Amino acid sequence: MRTEMFIAGKWTGGSGATTATVDPATGEVIADIPEATPADVDAAVEAAATAFASPEWVDMPPARRAKLLLDVADQLERRADEFARLETLDQGQPLGVAARISVPNAVEHLRYFAGWVTKITGTTVPLSVPDVDYRSRREPIGVCALITPWNFPLMIAMWKLAPALATGNTVVIKPAEQTPLTTLLLAEVLEQAGMPAGVVNVVTGGPEVGKALVAHPRVAKISFTGSTSVGREIAADAGRALKRVSLELGGKAPSIITADADIDVVLAGNLIAGLGNSGQACAAATRFYVDRSRADEFAEKAAAAASAMRLGPGLDPSTRLGPLASLEHLRKVDAYVRIGEAEGAELLTGGRRAEGELANGYFYEPTVFAGVTQDMRIAREEIFGPVLSVLPYDDPDELAQLANDTEYGLSAYIWCNDIRAANRLARRIKAGTVLINLPPGLDAAAPWGGMKASGLGREMGWEAIEAYTEVKSIWTGLS
């Protein structure tokens, strides 16, 4: 297990202090990870800048770069079990999630964007200026700082890394300080696959390391996934420096359950949407708008099903919900539950830290509130934990207004037997992704990102190629 940073093709312990990464299922320290100093950040950025100008990378034929990404995908797939277990150990997600979602999705992204490498084209346009031949080129931006979160460390890192490399950029990755281990293992795979030195660098540490990357004058683009508050700061700094920026931020996804929906049928999909990864997902469904005639039925059945979900260590195959990622985050989630009670919401199940044999880990019981109103903080602010709120509605014509009454706009869910009505509603909801009669889903070909305070730009699909390239116009006089 690698615990050093990876800079300019070499492993280094850095010159600063260390931060412990902890197993959230036990509270025990897994390893001590270097806290990058400003000098370490500068060395990583300079290595990426040098690699960006090197013939080995700049002049690498597209077919060779595509093959390199495919080789990385093959190596990652061969070591899938190792990656999945390490992700579960460090982040806490059930092994089934890591093995069936996180690692395969990372492999899929590498192969998908490897396919784009040989297909990134410019255009020719007939100009009205006489005797001029015109064409455009898509070119890489330069050094990209990729700052990743702790909820899906490997998968979200690959959402950024695969298109950045496919388009010819070089990168410095900073994983979340709580969950750096699979990113460091990925650097080992990249090294073994023959990635040129300096093309991919990994620095570790806390928020100050991320700030140093954002501020570095040789970083041309920043891609960040995390909280809206931090995203606002990054956007402001990037705006002043005129750097390119992509942000995937918070969410408060509505799940709309219409009167004609079969509660028993839609319940499982809504629990996946709300409690997957213990609610630690920006796309988690947290506001359940249910027709008032069905709201009590839905709330009671959701509470019964949630309370039956087994909490436990992610490496236990019988576990349905793993721990929260850190003690600090557990305390934040619990504070919101206490706020919900104080605001008058009815706590149907959960609402406390797990006890007994799970007491040393960061486990929180799945929690369901009924009787929640639109003005309550638990209905408006991102909790990022296993806390579900049921909000009855009376008039279907109000649903779009209720769903949009938030600063966030990442994702939304509609459960409705009338597909025409569902699609009309989907058009009115302000969210980057709307899923109709489906739990959360991701595909490398489908653009992902948010509206409003949920972010700027898109990941995945052709939109990710655009996000990591700039267009150059070339005019040639013919007379």
Automatic annotation (TrEMBL):
Domain of life assignment: Bacteria
Q: Which UniProt keywords apply?
A: Oxidoreductase
Family annotation (InterPro entries)? Ald_DH/histidinol_DH, Ald_DH_C, Ald_DH_CS_CYS, Ald_DH_CS_GLU, Ald_DH_N, Aldehyde_DH_dom
PROSITE patterns xref list = ALDEHYDE_DEHYDR_CYS, ALDEHYDE_DEHYDR_GLU
Output the Gene Ontology terms for molecular function: oxidoreductase activity
Instruction: Give the annotated active site.
Output: 248
Question: Gene3D superfamilies in the record, alphabetically?
Answer: Aldehyde Dehydrogenase, Chain A, domain 1, Aldehyde Dehydrogenase, Chain A, domain 2
User: Any idea of its EC number?
Assistant: 1.2.1.-
Domain called Aldehyde dehydrogenase: residue spans: 11-474
For this chain, the family text in UniProt reads: Belongs to the aldehyde dehydrogenase family.
Question: PANTHER family attached here?
Answer: ALDEHYDE DEHYDROGENASE-RELATED (PTHR11699)
What is this protein identified as?
A: Aldehyde dehydrogenase family protein
What is the species listed in this Swiss-Prot or TrEMBL entry? Streptomyces hyaluromycini
